[in-house]
Every structure is written in structure tokens, then in C-alpha cells.
Design a protein that fits this description.
about 600 residues; alpha+beta; Phosphoenolpyruvate Carboxykinase, domain 1; Phosphoenolpyruvate Carboxykinase, domain 3; 9-stranded mixed β-sheet; 6-stranded mixed β-sheet; 34 strands; binds oxalic acid; binds manganese (II) ion
């Protein structure tokens, strides 16, 4: 396929922006992506020739090995450049927008010499939905282009919407390292930059995941959270699932969990309780807005899955494995001798030999993982057997329950319901999790991650909580109930809860609570189940649901420190909730 030099669009501001990017980056060539199969195959061929992709034994699938220094999101190199540092808040890295722009222009000057610039028009959300937003990514990474083809609605239909004059978020991306022809060029000095007021994204130096596929974390969360604040909706790090009871009653749940805490597994859960059915609307991001009846309706802005591979297996998520049967991109997984991929947890028995994610020989017991812990698969959501028929409904689905979860080995019970919306916002604000490999840095450390949005909120956290409280005060709203869950509580002898398919037991309780049917007892921390279905399981329900008074009193001190670190924008309602919790626990 010949690469077209320049296909003009009827959108004047798009043409101007692309023209400016060309002048700045000086690519050898410009290609406007149409999103076709031919284009995809052509780019995959280029990636194979460059040594970035290895074709796999499974149909139309490839393995990429990244540079070992480019394996995860780089939160310490992610910046929010609002005019005032107060608007970015203390949890974001703020830089002065004018200074950052100057430094970016230096980085991007001539950066694409010797390379092709790809112009990728895309829609986050079903094309034509009033809830969707358009973006255009300009990039010198064909890997980013082919990944964007699965992760977004990319190509001609998005360009046609732009031709009609629609607004778009400009997303300028370069892997840096001009002249580097190695399989995964990138720059040590990465920076992922957001300008919330002008709604722009500039990303330099990384080809990996959320750093480089700019529709996902950069647009659909950091920039969209700012749009949502300004326009009265919610852009959240949440899966969306459809839960159908044996009687055929449907509830839709949106659930926030920090990265690599099992959102994809929960969104595709294979229930162990007969008659229950889980279907997927989305596995990572939810955009929610009120409909005319005052219900919060959610769309999944994404079109693909960018899932953590290790731990995804026949026992944990057979539906994800089925989705990956073909047309998939695997990054930093191991390659088996028969030309397929493998990662820890994919099968019970490891292969006798593999080439690991660094391209070295690997055998079981070698003392190092075959796949990088943040190895990923990229595939169209439509390939998952669990997608609900309505997953692309432009109107979205009405949310009945919002769930907050984290990876907590102590203190936090298996499930609880918030007393009311304000208490639910409090539960979201105190979320914490033991850190995983999704972000660069130490693992297993407790990190507060309110609403699982700490790395993804494009503005001040205190203002974000205030926005959630405002949503709850909307007149005539039929608000979802709010719950918190924790699959990861431990005793001295290990995990207390089997998790995975058995999580449907907790979902069952949530479903029944939404109809006012399941029983609960009121405690200072929230409403705890008195009727959880654990038939056939040997679990210590008391330990799973115990109100750990001393643990909570210790936790309150940590939360107080965390709240103090957020500065004076923390809403007084949340401080009051914390005081009420302390008093409630002390009175027991
Ligand atoms: C992701 C993440 O890739 O949260 O979804 O890191
Ligand atoms: Mn995520």
C-alpha cells in the first residue's frame, strides 16, 4: 500500500494544527489514517520489518518487546499544566504552561526527521453519540497507530465527523530519539503533558500504553475529567458491567479499582452461582451523565481492551483468553517454542522453555519472570464473548450501583454499602491500594488512590471530591447506591476470599440491595451484609466482614494525613465524615 502524502480535511483548525505539527516535527512523510484493514496490515508489516513485531502462531497476532526502560506509565513524568498550580492541585505534577510549551517545542523540533508522521482521527465513545468526544493523535509510532485502531474508533468515520466541523482534542505524540532505528526507539527523558484549559496533550519519549495511546488515560481521563467538571458529568476510571439475576432482572454497575487490580477480570466474570450472568460494557473507563429522567447513564469511551496479561488465565478470566484468539497485539509477553505467547498465570504448567520479554532464553525456575509484570494484550472489545448487546448504545446504560475497590490485605471488609451519597463519596476518597506494576516504581506499598483517579484526575483532588458531592445534590436525580469491596483481605494463612468467579456472590448482594431486598447491618463503617450467599464455600465470613476497630482507628490517622496533604480544597463534608467515623468507632 502506498502512503499518501497529505489528505486534506475540511476542518480548518485540524489542518492548521497538523500543518504546525509538520513544520515543528519535520517528518519525511505524512499519512492520514483511514482505519482500514489494508492500512493496519501494511503498518503491521512495517513493524515486522523493523523488528518491533514478531508474527505469532495465532491468527493475525503479533508480539512486541519494548525497550526495558519503557514498560509502564511514568507518573513522575506526567504533568498537568494548568494556568494556576492551585488548579492542578498537590497530587499532580504542575508546570507553568508557557515554560512547558517552550521546552516541548524544543523537544519536538525536527523530532520526526527520517520518519513518517501518522495523523490518527479517533472517537472516544460511539461515533455520533452526544456523550462521545473526538481526538486526533499525530504520532511517529506505527505501534501506537495499530494499537489505537483497536482501542478507539479510528479512521475515516472520525475524520468525517471532523470534516463536519466537530471539536477535537489535539494529541501530539513522538517516541523521540530521532535517527534511532532499533525495534523500540524511545527517549529516557519522557514527558506526558496535559494542558487542561486548552484541552491539549503532548507526549514525548515513550511508545508504551497510557503514555502513548493518548485516547485512553490522557484524553478519556485527565482531559475528560476537566471537561466533565466544567460540563456537569463524570469521567471515571471504572469498568461497567451488566448483571442479570436468575429472575432476569438487570442491574448495571460501574466499579473503580486502581490499575492492575482486576477490573478486566471483574468486567468479564464467569459466575460460579447458577443463573447469574455478567456481561461487559467496558473494562477501564466510564463516562457518566444524567439523562432526562435524572439517571446517571454510562458509556464506555473505549473500543478495545488493553489488559494486564500476567494473571489472566483459564482459571481467572477464560473470557479474556477467548477474546485473544486472534487479531491481538501482545507486548512484553514471552514467546513459546511453538510461536505463541505465554505469561505467568496463563496456564498452570509453564512451558519448558520460552524466549522472555527481554528476548532471552527462559526456563521455569530461572528466578525471573518470563513476561514483564505489566505485559499487556491489546484487542478489540467486540472479540470478548461477554460483551453485552448494548455495549455501544450511544445513549449509554443506566447505572444502578457504583463500587469502589482496592487491594487491601487488612482492615477493609469484603463488601459494604455506603449510608448515603455523601458517605459514598467519602468511601471513594479514602480508597487505598497496595501498588502494582502498572506504574513505574515500588510495588506492594499502600498508596491512597481516591476513586482510583490519583494518576488520572486532570485537576485538584479536593475540587474533584466537591464535583462528586455536587452531582449528588442534583435536583430530581435518581442516584446509584454506592458500595466498597475488597477481594484481597488476608489472614495469617493467606487470602480469605477465593475471588474471581465467586465475586458474583458479592455482586448478588449488591444487586439485591439495589432492590432493597438483601439484608444489612448498620455499622460505623457502613452497611455490612447479614445475608451473603457463601453456600458451598469454606470461607471465614466473620473475618471477611469484621469491623476491625483498631485497624480503622489506625487507618483514620493515615486518612487524616492524606486529607491534610490535599490542602485546603478538601470539602468540609469529607472531614465531617471522617469525624463521624472516628466517633462511631470510639463509641463501640
Ligand atoms: C491501565 C492502567 O492501563 O490503569 O488501564 O494503567
Ligand atoms: Mn486503567
Amino acid at each position: 500500500m502506498a502512503i499518501e502524502p497529505f489528505t486534506p480535511s475540511a476542518n480548518a483548525s485540524l489542518l492548521t494544527w497538523v500543518g504546525d505539527a509538520v513544520s515543528l516535527c519535520e517528518p519525511d512523510d505524512v499519512h492520514w489514517c483511514d482505519g482500514s484493514t489494508e492500512e493496519y496490515e501494511h503498518l503491521c508489516g512495517l513493524l515486522v520489518d523493523a523488528g518491533t513485531f514478531e508474527p505469532l502462531a495465532r491468527p493475525n497476532s503479533y508480539l512486541a518487546r519494548s525497550h526495558p526502560g519503557d514498560v509502564a506509565r511514568v507518573e513522575d513524568r506526567t504533568f498537568i499544566c494548568s494556568r494556576s498550580p492551585r488548579d492542578a492541585g498537590p497530587t499532580n505534577n504542575w508546570r507553568d504552561p508557557a515554560e512547558m510549551r517552550t521546552s516541548l517545542e524544543e523537544r519536538f523540533a525536527g523530532v520526526m526527521r527520517g520518519r513518517t508522521m501518522y495523523v490518527v482521527p479517533f472517537s472516544m465513545g460511539p461515533l455520533g453519540s452526544p456523550a462521545s468526544r473526538l481526538g486526533v493523535q499525530v504520532t511517529d509510532s506505527p505501534y501506537a497507530v495499530v494499537s489505537m485502531r483497536w482501542m478507539t474508533r479510528m479512521g475515516t468515520p472520525a475524520l468525517e465527523a471532523l470534516d463536519a466541523g466537530a471539536d477535537f482534542v489535539p494529541c501530539l505524540h513522538s517516541i523521540g530519539a530521532p535517527g534511532d532505528t532499533s525495534p523500540w526507539p524511545c527517549d529516557e527523558d519522557k514527558c506526558i503533558v496535559h494542558f487542561p484549559e486548552t484541552r491539549e496533550i503532548w507526549s514525548y519519549g515513550s511508545g508504551y500504553g497510557g503514555n502513548a495511546l493518548l485516547g485512553k488515560k490522557c484524553l478519556a481521563l485527565r482531559i475528560a475529567s476537566v471537561m466533565a467538571r466544567d460540563e456537569g458529568w463524570l469521567a471515571e476510571h471504572m469498568l461497567i458491567l451488566k448483571l442479570t439475576s436468575p429472575e432476569g432482572t438487570v442491574k448495571y454497575l460501574a466499579a473503580a479499582f486502581p490499575s492492575a487490580c482486576g477490573k478486566t477480570n471483574l468486567a468479564m466474570l464467569a459466575p460460579t452461582l447458577p443463573g447469574w450472568r455478567v456481561e461487559t460494557i467496558g473494562d477501564d473507563i466510564a463516562w457518566m451523565r444524567f439523562d432526562d429522567e435524572g439517571r446517571l447513564r454510562a458509556i464506555n469511551p473505549e473500543a478495545g481492551l488493553f489488559g494486564v496479561a500476567p494473571g489472566t488465565g483459564t482459571a481467572t478470566n477464560p473470557n479474556a483468553l477467548a477474546a485473544l484468539a486472534g487479531n491481538a497485539i501482545f507486548t512484553n509477553c514471552a514467546r513459546t517454542d511453538d510461536g505463541d505467547v505465554w505469561w505467568e498465570g496463563m496456564t498452570i504448567e509453564p512451558p519448558a522453555h520460552a524466549i522472555d520479554w527481554r528476548g532471552e532464553h527462559w526456563t521455569p525456575g530461572s528466578g525471573r519472570p518470563a513476561a514483564h509484570p505489566n505485559a499487556r494484550f491489546t484487542v478489540a472489545s467486540a472479540q470478548a464473548p461477554t460483551m453485552a448487546a448494548e455495549w455501544e448504545d450511544p445513549a449509554g446504560v443506566p447505572i444502578d450501583a457504583i463500587v469502589f475497590g482496592g487491594r487491601r490485605s487488612t482492615v477493609v471488609p469484603l463488601v459494604q454499602e455506603a449510608h448515603d451519597w455523601e458517605h459514598g463519596v467519602f468511601l471513594g476518597s479514602i480508597m487505598g491500594s497496595e501498588t502494582t506494576a502498572a506504574a513505574a516504581g515500588e510495588r506492594g506499598r499502600l498508596r491512597r488512590d481516591p476513586f482510583a483517579m490519583l494518576p488520572f484526575c486532570g485537576y485538584d483532588m479536593g475540587d474533584y471530591f466537591a464535583h462528586w458531592l455536587r452531582i449528588g445534590r442534583r435536583e430530581g436525580a435518581h442516584l446509584p447506591r454506592i458500595f466498597s469491596v475488597n477481594w484481597f483481605r488476608k489472614s495469617e494463612s493467606g487470602w480469605l476470599w477465593p475471588g474471581f468467579g465467586d465475586n458474583v456472590r458479592v455482586l448478588e448482594w449488591i444487586h439485591r440491595r439495589c432492590d432493597g431486598a438483601a439484608l444489612a447491618v448498620d455499622t460505623p463503617i457502613g452497611l455490612l451484609p447479614t445475608s451473603l450467599n457463601v453456600d458451598g464455600l469454606s470461607v471465614d465470613l466473620d473475618a471477611l466482614l469484621r469491623v476491625d476497630r483498631d485497624g480503622w482507628l489506625g487507618e483514620i490517622e493515615l486518612i487524616r494525613d492524606f486529607y491534610a496533604s490535599l490542602g485546603d480544597t478538601l470539602p468540609t463534608e469529607l472531614q465531617r465524615q471522617l469525624d463521624t467515623l472516628r466517633k462511631g468507632l470510639r463509641c463501640r
